[in-house]
Write a structure and sequence with these properties.
Strand 1 and strand 2 form a beta hairpin. By secondary structure, this protein is of the alpha+beta class. Helix 2 runs parallel beside helix 3. The N and C termini lie far apart (42 Å). It contains 4 helices and 6 strands.
Length: 113
């Protein structure tokens, strides 16, 4: 979200901020690794993994974020505020806090098979 007096400057600043804040999203095939709920200010989101072929069932800004993250099968719902900025931020934070199988096993001290 870049702010400036001119449109081109705002787009440039937004792109620079986006490139600085890239992160990897753990996926289980074409879906997310586990069910998650996340709240950012008034926006609350729920995301659930889906079977292959289900598609991207999400609305508005959440759909765009999940599509760009490479998620193809997910069931998602936005509750509370419909403010798209807060919904997108809640989605981004939920994806950042996703745990991969490897991460959970390492945290528990279990050797991978």
């Amino acid at each position: 979200l870049g702010k400036a007096n001119e449109v081109t400057d705002a787009i440039r600043k937004g792109g620079e901020l986006a490139r600085k804040n890239l992160y990897e999203v753990p996926l289980a095939g074409n879906t997310i690794t586990h069910e998650t709920e996340y709240k950012f200010r008034g926006a609350k989101i729920i995301m659930r993994p889906a079977a292959p072929g289900t598609g991207l069932i999400a609305g508005g800004g959440m759909r765009a974020v999940l599509d760009l993250a490479g998620v193809h099968d997910v069931l998602a719902k936005s509750l509370g505020s419909s403010n798209s900025t807060n919904v997108v931020k809640a989605t981004m934070l939920a994806l950042q806090n996703m745990a991969s199988r490897k991460k959970v096993l390492d945290k528990r001290g279990i050797a991978q098979l």
